[in-house]
Amino acid sequence: MNIRSNTITYKDQLFLLPNDFFDNGRQEYCPECAEMWGIINYFPIIKPSLQIIYTSIEKPRKKLVDMIGYENQNCPTLILSNKSPIYQNCGLLSVNGYNFLNNVRDIGRYYSHRFGTSYPRGA
After folding, report:
1. pLDDT in tens, 59-90
2. Packing angle, helices 104-115 and 31-42, rounded to 10
3. How many domains does the chain have?
4. Residues 52, 3, 14, CA angle at the centre, nearest 5°?
């Protein structure tokens, strides 16, 4: 929940890895997180609905574990606010009272329903 100008707005939480991190003895980036940024830039209508949270490459990723469990630490993960609409056939998962999508293609399908954006190819 974000509070701005005495108005409460609810945002979905998008968990991403940073665009540059050290792993496997070298600098790397997450291709799926980069694809997620591509979707956000292709369709600017999406970004205002998000609170973007960068998390570490190292596991456990505490905030994700606390919310949706140890087995659900993938990035990107979109955790929907309790005010966000729910759609069928998007790969939506539910754990501990949270609705979430844990891969970029399902997130893209969800945005197709919610914002009228294009569908990911092959979805």
Report:
1. 999 999 999 999 999 999 999 999 999 999 99
2. 10
3. 1
4. 15
In single-letter form, the type of residue at position 43 comes to F
CATH classification of the domain holding 68: 3.40.30
pLDDT tens-digit profile of 20-59? 999 999 999 999 999 999 999 999 999 999 999 999 999 9
What gap in Å lies between CA 123 and CA 109, rounded to an integer?
7
Is 122 contained in some domain?
A: no
Q: What is the DSSP string of 21-41?
A: EEETTEEE--HHHHHHHHHHH
91 domain-assigned: yes
Contact 51, 14 (CB under 8 A): yes
Would 120 be classed as within a structural domain?
no
pTM: 0.90
* Beta strands at 50-54 and 12-16: parallel, antiparallel or unpaired: parallel
Give, in degrees to the nearest 5, the angle at Cα 122 between 116 and 123: 45
Range of the domain at 100: 9-115
**Are the C-beta atoms of 27 and 7 separated by less than 8 Å?**
no
